[in-house]
Write a structure and sequence with these properties.
The complex is a heterodimer. Chain A is 55% helix and 8% strand. By secondary structure, chain A is of the alpha+beta class. Chain A has two domains: 7-208 and 425-589, no CATH class; 218-388, 2-Layer Sandwich (Alpha-Beta Plaits). In chain A, the strands form two sheets. In chain A, strands 1, 2, 3, 4 and 5 form a five-stranded antiparallel beta sheet that branches. In chain A, strand 3 and strand 4 form a beta hairpin. The longest helix of chain A has 24 residues, at 566-589. Chain A starts with 6 loop residues before the first helix and ends in a 5-residue tail after the last helix. The mean pLDDT of chain A is 84. By secondary structure, chain B is an alpha/beta fold. Chain B has helices at 22-31, 33-36, 55-68, 82-90, and strands at residues 2-8, 11-20, 42-53, 75-78, 98-99. The chains are: A alpha+beta, B alpha/beta. The A-B interface holds A 227-229, 232-233, 254-256, 258, 268, 270-272, 299, 301 and B 22, 54-56, 58-59, 62-63, 65-66, 87, 89-93, 95-96.
């Protein structure tokens, strides 16, 4: 024994602290760090084999796994796609856009989990930003806030809610209703949304890397020299095609596939040459107008043969697309659809080589020259292969779309009216999705985030270790000695600590560590544990000041081109105000003494 | 690939035989050197026995043309088969050269 704690307790403390340090300071994947810690706890005998493995079969893990299947069903049957197209309206200005975005997003997040909603709507929100001519970050941050705030209203809304509900069941033997956090969650959502609207000037405008095709200088564009082009027979330099506004000619592909690279300034231009430029796409595309070049998949005799009304459209290569692993020259995609591939972007980086020769990967962004009409037909014909950025496609509401929507609604009804426990309803809903073929069995695995399940399973074990080794008891007593036995003060101090820790580690980890301590404190003070549990549930999700603390901030971090400190400007204010509102609300709703 | 330069009726005639592909173009470039020194002679590319021409072959033709034109010489192409005609048409060479 040292400072009142056993060797096992110290091992647990050092292990959990190490995890936090590893996550904050290194690039080691979180699931590896968590599994490493679990191994240490097992090898040193802190937890038994049974306890160590029990986490993976616990309610939060099973519910999450089943929920991934449900999301797969909603995705594949078109429900989510339909939502992304129909939930958002057509805002006229930024102020209205924030309101129109945040309200439906918070409702959806409560039902579909905050992380899913943000992942789902990132692209749609970016299109809005483009329409309104503002930086995507100005809308992505409100999206993230709306989703996390809305997620506070149900157990499925945020992962940490499920963890706490699972631990509560473990400790008290009582199951929590799916809508248990609805009332305080709703108050926080309303206050939070109002705060974001009032403090919108704190949201930094950042140019998004995803506007790549317009702004970055590092993309490869392919243009064809029609036979009757006046530059034929000239050198690239004398024709003004070597150094052009916004880019440089890096390669010429002749009609017989001979590649000239690097291109010398006295290289001749032949009709049928494909000129490969690196640079700013929009400016290079001006060459079509100024120098009579064409974007085309086949030979062009005269620029007049090309419909000048053809337009550029951007599309993503979908997962499972038949285009993956093949290049445009190897397949008949361009001929079949009357489109021409002009450029390819891969994760915001330039892809070397001739765009039409590039073997495509899932997630690649393609810039296609498309026919002036029949946008919807093009999307309909390729809906399994490509997702168009400016999509006009609203899927036909098939029977399976209705099935999966009904399954989701039934799941909420059965669970909220306590007909069946949450674990049973989510598993049934997942099963129904598979049986009714709302999602294909072989595709389901792709939608399951195994890393998250591993992390959730291990955090449950941490919680067990903290209780079992007496750490929860000692810290609970320690805090009580320091703060006196005023439950309000204890709750406030613990929530403040939990929310600060959440800023630096994940909300899930923080929830698992603080739960046993706060539960113990409630029991020691003879209080109703519910206000303690509920305040912890909400306080670990109000950590908005860093991208680490919030899973939704993490999702928008890259697409919004945010800087690490961008989140702190609005996040610190949100954190403090929401913490105070939360403590008041929870204590007004839940009595401290039964 | 065989390239022969003849002088006939005051014109320099380059006679091509075989396939003028990328591999053959280095050798052909050497063979065409005398055409670069021409002064005032018209030049004829006799393609009667030319089976194929690659883009590198076309570059050689173009180089000779660009060298000869400022000196007032004409460059004619003669005897091309249908395949070559398609290549010349597609690359825009039909508009650059004179055909006999």
């Amino acid at each position: 024994m040292f400072l009142g704690l056993s060797a096992h307790a110290w091992i647990t403390i050092v292990t959990v602290l190490s995890i936090f340090i590893v996550m904050a300071r290194t690039r080691i994947p979180a699931e590896i760090a968590f599994l490493g810690a679990l191994t240490i706890l097992q090898v040193t005998g802190v937890v038994s084999e049974e306890e160590g493995m029990a986490g993976f079969g616990s309610e939060p893990v099973v519910v999450h796994a089943a929920f991934f299947v449900i999301i797969a069903g909603l995705m594949q049957s078109g429900v989510l796609y339909w939502l992304t197209k129909n939930v958002l309206g057509d805002p006229k200005n930024y102020h209205r856009a924030i309101v129109k975005l945040m309200i439906p997003m918070s409702v959806l997040a409560a039902l579909l989990n905050s992380v899913n909603v943000v992942a789902l709507f990132i692209d749609a929100v970016k299109i809005w930003a483009r329409k309104l001519n503002i930086a995507p970050s100005k809308l992505l941050l409100p999206l993230s806030y709306a989703a996390t705030l809305g997620g506070m209203c149900t157990l499925l809304g945020n992962s940490s809610n499920l963890i706490i509900a699972g631990l509560y069941m473990h400790q008290s033997g009582q199951t929590m209703n799916l809508f248990a956090p609805l009332l305080p969650g709703l108050v926080l959502t309303v206050v939070g949304v109002l705060l974001v609207i009032m403090l919108q000037k704190f949201i930094p405008p950042r140019d998004s890397a995803e506007q790549s095709f317009e702004t970055t200088s590092d993309y490869t564009v392919e243009l064809l020299v029609p036979t009757d082009n006046p530059a034929v027979g000239e050198t690239v330099e004398s024709a003004g095609l070597m150094q052009v506004k916004g880019g440089t000619l890096v390669e010429i592909v002749r009609f017989d596939k001979e590649i000239i690279m690097p291109v010398k300034k006295d290289e001749w231009i032949l009709g049928g040459d494909r000129l490969i430029y690196a640079g700013q796409i929009n400016e290079i595309l001006e060459l079509k107008r100024t120098h009579g070049l064409a974007a085309a998949d086949r030979h062009v005799w005269s620029i007049n043969d090309i419909d000048s009304k053809r337009k550029m459209r951007t599309a993503y290569v979908s997962f499972g697309s038949e285009l993956i692993g093949t290049s445009m020259t190897q397949c008949d995609f361009e001929q079949k659809n009357d489109v021409a591939l002009v450029a390819v972007a891969r994760q915001g980086k330039r892809v070397q080589g001739q765009p039409r020769e590039i073997r495509l990967q899932a997630g690649d962004t393609l810039l296609l020259e498309c026919p002036p009409k029949d946008d919807e037909k093009l999307e309909q014909n390729n809906r399994r292969s490509l997702t168009f950025f400016d999509s006009h496609f609203v899927p036909h509401l098939g029977l399976r779309t209705i099935y999966s929507a009904v399954i989701l609604v039934l799941m909420f009804l059965l669970s909220s009216f306590h007909v069946l426990p949450l674990m049973a309803t989510t598993m049934m809903a997942a099963g129904a999705m598979l049986v009714l073929k709302c999602c294909r069995m072989e595709r389901v695995v792709r939608y399951i985030e195994w890393e998250l399940l591993l992390i959730l399973g291990t955090t449950v074990v941490f919680s067990v270790a903290i209780t079992k080794t007496g750490i929860a008891d000692v810290i609970a007593h320690g805090v009580l000695d320091l703060c006196g036995s005023n439950p309000y003060v204890v709750m406030a101090v613990m929530c403040l600590l939990a929310s600060i820790v959440s800023e630096f580690v994940s909300d899930v980890g923080s929830a698992a560590v603080f739960f046993p301590i706060m539960y113990q404190q409630a029991i020691l003070m003879g209080c109703n544990p519910m206000p303690f549990v509920m305040s912890l549930m909400l306080s670990v999700t109000i950590s908005f000041a860093s991208p680490i603390g919030s899973s939704t901030h993490m999702l928008i971090y890259g697409p919004g081109s945010f800087r690490f400190t961008d989140f702190a400007r609005l996040g610190v204010v949100m954190h403090i105000v929401l913490l105070i509102v939360m403590l008041v609300t929870v204590n007004l709703i839940y009595p401290l003494y039964l | 690939m065989k390239t022969t330069i003849l002088e006939k009726d005051g014109e320099l005639v380059a006679v091509f035989e075989g396939r003028l592909d990328t591999a053959a173009s280095v050798e052909t470039e050497q063979a065409l050197k005398p055409l670069y020194d021409c002064t005032g002679h018209n030049i004829v590319f006799d393609c009667t026995k030319l089976e194929y021409i690659s883009s590198s072959g076309l570059r050689l033709f173009l180089s000779v043309l660009k060298n000869a034109k400022p000196k007032g010489s004409h460059v004619y192409i003669t005897g091309i088969n249908d395949d070559l005609r398609t290549v010349f048409a597609m690359t825009g060479f039909t508009n650059l050269f004179e055909f006999k």
